[in-house]
Amino acid sequence: MSERPEIAFVVQRYGEGVTGGSESLARAIAGRLAADYRITVFTSRARDYVSWRNELPGEERLGGVDVRRFPAERERDLDAFNAYAEPLYARAAAAAESPTAAPTLAEELEFLRLQGPETPKLVEALAAEQDRFAAFVFFTYLYYPTYHGLALPRVAERAALVPTTHDEPPLRFSIYREVFVRPRAFGFLTAAEQALVKRRFELGGRPAVLAGMGVDVPPHADSDSFRTRHALDRPYAIYAGRIDAGKGCAEMLAHHARYRRGKKEALELVLIGRLAMPEPRQDGVRYLGFLSEEEKAAALAGARVVVCPSPFESLSIALLEALAVGTPGLVNARSEVLKEHCLRSGAALYYEDGDEYVESMELVARDGSLHAALGASGRRYVQAEYRWDVVLERWRELIRAAAGGRI
Fold first, then answer.
1. Which of 16, 32, 141, 254 is the most buried (most CB within 10 A)?
2. Residues 239, 271 contacting (CB under 8 angstroms)
3. 96: helix, strand or coil
């Protein structure tokens, strides 16, 4: 036990029932690497990212990992935050042509504080214990713990940043140039994400590992029983994840209503996950709530197609889980990451607008040969690129790079 190097993971939320792409990634990697390293997670006590309310216990051991949680100084008022942030986004976008429009450093730091989770005690603990750890792994470039944790020089010199980047308004802020300057190494989830970061920031010769994330393929997903339990007696499309207008869900619902208009045999749209917007109440849409992993696998396996409508993705676990069980994808082409999955896998279609959504949904719904070919390609893609044994060796490489020869 004592021979295992000590590694710190820093992420904004962590724990059972905590959903979110980077949070799920951190937990999946930490649990699987616990046999190789003594991992301590530094995180907030928040369960949800909307309010950052302190709900989870301060210390816990989960799956062989020590979890240390620190309180957020305040809960977030999302409406007030958005009212503050939106003008800054517009000014940052305009700064390319008019540099004087750019937000000031003080305004950007206030954005970071208001966005949350504001956890100064977490940063103090990192500073006090920084010599304990051979390496630090920070998940997500966007939040307070990453910005202030990487501002500690002795932490940054042994740090890997897993930024989970997508092209979103805050990426233009000057404070995030600081974030990408500081770490020793980078871990990316896809080649498209890595290319985006290289276009925006100077990485120099620092190590960059295309680490990715593994996908668990269930031995048998009982889709027939799932359909029976939920009275799904017609073919359906599915969306899995946080149901949020910011994830493209409002646009998806509008496109799906248009697709169903005047059709007797149109696919229903099943939604699974946590609500972050009013529950949709439209014809041909069913909300089933948050499901267990076993139920989610059965739901994905039974679907005709999984819809991934977000223009902002750094990986899309839901798409990969669907491809693993042979369910094709229909994804938003505005996400370079999702489009890259389509092109590399041959297992999904993509749409630019409502017309293409309708045409693609009709095609995958009625063409059995296409559906089978896409499904087979998806299984091959996940097996080749996202097996856990392959992925974990890449993560070990990333940690070694961050440690700079210390392990």
1. 141
2. yes
3. coil
Token pair listed for 92: 């940052």
Tens digit of each residue's pLDDT, the chain (407 residues)? 458 999 999 999 999 988 888 999 999 999 999 999 999 999 999 999 999 999 999 999 999 999 999 999 999 999 999 999 999 999 999 998 898 999 999 999 999 999 999 999 999 999 999 999 999 999 999 999 999 999 999 999 999 999 999 889 999 999 999 999 999 999 999 998 999 999 999 898 899 999 999 988 777 788 999 999 999 999 999 999 989 998 999 999 999 999 999 898 899 999 999 998 999 999 999 999 999 889 999 999 999 999 999 998 878 889 999 999 999 999 999 999 999 999 999 999 999 999 999 999 999 999 999 999 999 999 999 998 898 998 999 999 999 999 998 88
Q: Tell me how far apart the alpha carbons of residues 140 and 18 are, in angstroms, rounded to a whole number.
A: 15
Class of domain 6-214+388-403: alpha beta
Angstrom distance (rounded) from CA 134 to CA 143: 23
Whether 121 and 70 have beta carbons less than 8 Å apart is answered as yes
Residues 6+ apart with CB under 8 A from 207: 184, 185, 186, 398, 401
CB 176 within 8 A of CB 141: yes
What whole-number distance in Å separates Cα of residue 65 and Cα of residue 161? 20
Identity of the residue numbered 394: R
Yes or no: say if 406 and 134 are a contact pair by the CB < 8 Å rule. Answer: yes
Q: Map tokens 């893609």 to a residue.
A: 381
Cα–Cα distance between 247 and 163 in angstroms, integer? 18
- Angstrom distance (rounded) from CA 322 to CA 302: 10
Q: Where are the domains of the chain?
A: 6-214+388-403, 223-385
Assess if CATH 3.40.50.2000 describes domain 223-385.
yes
Q: Please provide residue 68's backbone torsions phi and psi, each rounded to the nearest 5 degrees.
A: -115, 120
Which one-letter DSSP state was computed for residue 46?
B
CB 244 within 8 A of CB 309: no
Amino acid at 363: L
Residue 74 is encoded by which pair of tokens?
Answer: 């305040």
pTM attached to this predicted model: 0.81
Number of other CB atoms surrounding residue 246 within 10 Å:
13
